[in-house]
C-alpha cells in the first residue's frame, strides 16, 4: 500500500490562536443539529500543475482567500465527499469505509477534469482532522462527527479549460439528527424537474448536482414534505434518487429493490453497504428500474410494504408518504418498517463498534 511519503507529503500542524472555549463547545455538542456548527480546525493541501500535491497543513478553520477570477467561481470545478467519525463502544474513534469515499472522490475528480488525490492522502487528511478535533464529538444519542472533504479550482483565469491550481480541504461538523421534524417516517414530493441526464454528472458528487435540486427541494418543503424524489430525464417515469439519498423498496415476499446505477445516480456508500448486509442475511436484492406508477400500484395493493432512503447524513430513513400532482399514497403503515429498522440497526451497530465487522469496513483511529 502506498504511503504519504510515496505521495511526497508531510503534514504541518499550526496552532489555533483562539479555539472555542470548553464551556461554549459543550453547549454546542449538547444540541449540534446538522451542518450548522463547525470544529476548530481544517486540513488544507494545494495542487499545482507540474508540482502536484504540496503544502499539507492542519490548522485553524478560517476563511479561504480566493481571487475573484478563481475558476471555481466561474466554471464550478468543485467536488466533495461526506463521511462520519463514530465513537466506538470501547470509547475509541473510528471511520466507516473511508477508502470507499476516497475512491468515489477520485471518480468525481475524473468526471470534472480535476487531479486525483492519492487515496492514502485522503484518509490521512481525515485522520489528522479527527485527531485535532477529537473533543468535538456530540454528547447526544446517535451523535457523530461529520467530515466534509472537498476540492475547488483556485487558478485565477477566465476561459473554459481545466484549471491548473486546486485546493483540497477537510472541515468537520458535530452532527445530530439530519431531519429536524422528528417524524417516524419522511414524506416526499415527486419532482417534475430533472436532477441528472445520461452522460451528465449525476454519478459525481459535485455541487452543481445539488444546486439543481434546490428549487425542487424548496417546492417540496413548501408543500409540506421533507424531501424530493427525482425521475429519469429520458422518460420521466423511472425512480432515481432523492435530493441527497438513494432509495430502497421492500416487498411482501421479503425481496428488496434499489434503482440501478446508470450514471445518473450517485453510487452511495450507504446504499452499497446495505446491499451487502441484506445479502449477508440471505435476502434477495435486485438492482433495476422501478416506475412511479408501479410504486403507487404496489403500495395500494400491499405488495410494497416498505420504502426507505439511505445516505451518510441521514443513515436509513423510512419513507411513509409519497405525493405528486396526481395525488398521494402511503407506503405500508406510513411509519418505520421492520426490515428497514433491522438493516439500520445492523449498519449502525457495525459503525459504532457494537457488532462484528466481517467486511473490514471500520478503520479505527484510536
UniProtKB/TrEMBL annotation:
Short name of any one Pfam family annotated for the protein: Aminotran_4
Cofactor: pyridoxal 5'-phosphate
UniProt EC number: 2.6.1.42
Major enzyme class: transferase
GO MF term set: branched-chain-amino-acid transaminase activity
InterPro entries hit by this protein: Aminotrans_IV (IPR001544), Aminotrans_IV_CS (IPR018300), Aminotransferase-like (IPR036038), B_amino_transII (IPR005786), BCAT-like_C (IPR043132), BCAT-like_N (IPR043131), BCAT_family (IPR033939)
Pathway: Amino-acid biosynthesis; L-isoleucine biosynthesis; L-isoleucine from 2-oxobutanoate: step 4/4; Amino-acid biosynthesis; L-leucine biosynthesis; L-leucine from 3-methyl-2-oxobutanoate: step 4/4; Amino-acid biosynthesis; L-valine biosynthesis; L-valine from pyruvate: step 4/4
Keyword Cytoplasm: no
Record's keyword terms, sorted: Amino-acid biosynthesis, Aminotransferase, Branched-chain amino acid biosynthesis, Pyridoxal phosphate, Transferase
Gene3D superfamilies recorded: 3.30.470.10, D-amino Acid Aminotransferase, subunit A, domain 2
Catalytic activity field: L-leucine + 2-oxoglutarate = 4-methyl-2-oxopentanoate + L-glutamate; L-valine + 2-oxoglutarate = 3-methyl-2-oxobutanoate + L-glutamate; L-isoleucine + 2-oxoglutarate = (S)-3-methyl-2-oxopentanoate + L-glutamate
UniProt family annotation: Belongs to the class-IV pyridoxal-phosphate-dependent aminotransferase family.
Entry-linked NCBIfam families: ilvE_II, PRK13357.1
Stated role: Acts on leucine, isoleucine and valine.
Name of the protein described by the UniProt record: Branched-chain-amino-acid aminotransferase
Source organism (scientific name): Novosphingobium album
Source taxonomy: Bacteria, Pseudomonadati, Pseudomonadota, Alphaproteobacteria, Sphingomonadales
